[in-house]
Amino acid sequence: MRERLDCALIGTACTESWTRPWAGRHFAGRLYFHSPMPSIDVSHPEAPDQLGNGSMILRRFDVCLVPVSAQNLAWARTSLSAANGRLTTPVFALIDQLKAAALNDLYELGLSDFVRAPLCPEELRVRIERLLERRAPALSWSMPVSSPSTRVGERSGDYIGPAQGLRPDEAELCSTILERTGIELDAYAAATASRSATSRESFRAAKGKIIERFETAYIKAALGRHSGNIAMAARAAQKHRRAFWALMRKYDIDAAPYRSESPPKHLSDG
To answer: For the residues of 141-178, what is the DSSP string, one character each?
Structure first.
């Protein structure tokens, strides 16, 4: 049993009156409700995309809790559909007087589970724990250290093999780090710091781990983008070549495998 579960409340303007009281700590400090996103106006043209667009921010939470009633049911349907494949955090619905047909639609669109209003924190906690237990086998994949020859560069979005000890979402972020926005990197740093703060890991150790992962991912991605040319990679990173080389030595990164990569092959008309 987890000591603490973090739940992101995704409020909409039409359900805000019955979700606002839940912001803060509940259930003896073991189930936390957060409001990481502003209340959504479901009538706004971009409202259906906000759940998917917030996928990086929402990764720091165990689940998303989305209040759904007849007033915002259409928005919930389109939001789940738009977020499919982008949002990895499981979504729970806090439902108010919905019929079975509507619930079946939400399940088909990616809903993980639901609880009924008025909310019972103890019931929600049990459902979250059971869901995380079911998901654990699918996420507990082995991540061996790849040999340098299998760690291809970042050219055209090529995948850089996951580093030892990284979670699947962290490995994905490291493989595309040069394409990430500041908001996404901030969200990753915040999520990692939040996990470390609730564990026994010291501030210094947690900070060092984040810096090490960032520097390693950046150096490898830069070498991949510039076909192993250290001078060009350093220039693009706006670092002195010696400083760039020092980081390569620090993390035992060899530029040779990136130089030996063949350019991506394109299909020809013939």
So the answer is: ---PPPPGGG----GGGPPPPPPTT--HHHHHHHHTGG
Order of strands across the sheet with 91-95?
24-26, 31-34, 5-9, 63-68, 91-95, 113-116
Domains and CATH numbers, the chain: 5-139 (3.40.50.2300), 148-259 (no CATH)
pLDDT digits (tens, 9 = 90+) for 78-91: 999 999 888 989 99
In three-state secondary structure terms, 116 is strand
Tokens, residue 203: 């501030």
| Contact in structure between 220 and 151 (CB atoms under 8 Å) | yes
Tens digits of residue pLDDT in 68-127:
999 999 999 999 999 988 898 999 999 999 999 999 999 999 999 999 998 888 899 999
